TrEMBL record:
InterPro entries: P-loop_NTPase (IPR027417). This is Uridine kinase. It comes from Streptomyces nodosus. The lineage of its organism: Bacteria, Bacillati, Actinomycetota, Actinomycetes, Kitasatosporales. Residues 183-206 are annotated as: Disordered.
C-alpha cells in the first residue's frame, strides 16, 4: 500500500493544489475499506465519501452540488464546506470543512463519472463483479435495507450504463485473501512493472 501511496503523492496536482484520487466501483465492492487503508498509508489523507453527498432523492444526481460545494473551492485552493447527509434522519447535518490537502480521496459509486474525471489525478476501480459486490452489500446491510437495495441496484445499473467508469480507470484494485492487487486499468497502457501487490503482512511486494 505504501508503494501506491508514494506514487500518488508524486503525481501533479489535478484540482488546484490537490491530487484528487477517485475510488469507484459497485456498491459493496469494498471501496470504503480500501480508501481507509490507502488514506492511512498517505499519512491521514482526507477521504470524502460520496455517501455523504448522495441523498434518497439524489442517488446519482448530485454532481452540480459536489462541484459547487467541494470541487470548485478546492480548485481555487480554498477550504470546501459541505453538509453530510444523514441516511437515517433523511436530513443534511452541520457543515463540514474540507481543507485542500496534497492528496484527497473521493470514494463512492460514481467517483469516476465523466464530469469529475478532468479533476482526478488518478481513477481507481474496485474490480469486483457487480452481482458479487451487490450480494456482499445486501448481506452487510441485512433485511432492513432490502427495499433500498432493490431500488439502488436499478439506479446503479442505469448510472453505469450511461456514464461508465471502469473503462476509464487508471488502476484496477482487486482484493485478495490478504491485501490488494493493483493492476493497470483500461485507460493505462499495460506495463508489467506497474503491477503492485499490497498486503498488510511482512511479505508485501510493493
Amino acid at each position: 500500500m505504501h508503494t501506491l501511496a508514494s506514487r500518488l503523492r508524486r503525481l501533479p496536482p489535478s484540482c488546484g493544489p490537490v491530487r484528487l484520487i477517485g475510488v469507484d466501483g459497485h456498491a459493496g465492492s469494498g471501496k470504503s475499506t480500501f480508501a481507509g487503508r490507502l488514506a492511512a498509508a498517505l499519512e491521514g489523507a482526507p477521504v470524502l465519501h460520496l455517501d455523504d453527498i448522495a441523498t434518497h432523492q439524489e442517488l446519482f444526481t448530485w454532481t452540480e452540488r459536489l462541484q459547487r460545494e467541494v470541487i470548485e473551492p478546492l480548485g481555487r485552493g480554498e477550504t470546501a464546506h459541505y453538509r453530510p447527509y444523514d441516511w437515517r434522519t433523511r436530513r443534511f447535518g452541520p457543515a463540514r470543512a474540507l481543507p485542500p490537502a496534497p492528496v484527497i480521496l473521493l470514494e463512492g459509486v460514481g467517483a469516476g463519472r465523466r464530469a469529475l474525471r478532468p479533476r482526478l489525478a488518478r481513477l481507481l476501480w474496485m474490480d469486483l463483479p457487480r452481482e458479487e459486490a451487490w450480494a456482499r452489500g445486501r448481506a452487510r446491510d441485512g433485511e432492513e435495507q432490502r427495499a433500498f437495495w432493490d431500488r439502488w441496484t436499478q439506479e446503479e445499473r442505469r448510472h453505469f450504463a450511461g456514464d461508465p467508469s471502469r473503462r476509464y480507470a487508471d488502476l484496477l484494485v482487486r482484493q485478495r485473501t490478504e491485501g490488494y492487487e493493483v493492476r493497470p486499468g483500461l485507460a493505462t497502457a499495460p506495463d508489467p512493472d506497474q503491477i503492485l501487490t499490497h498486503s498488510d503482512g511482512p511479505s508485501a511486494v510493493c
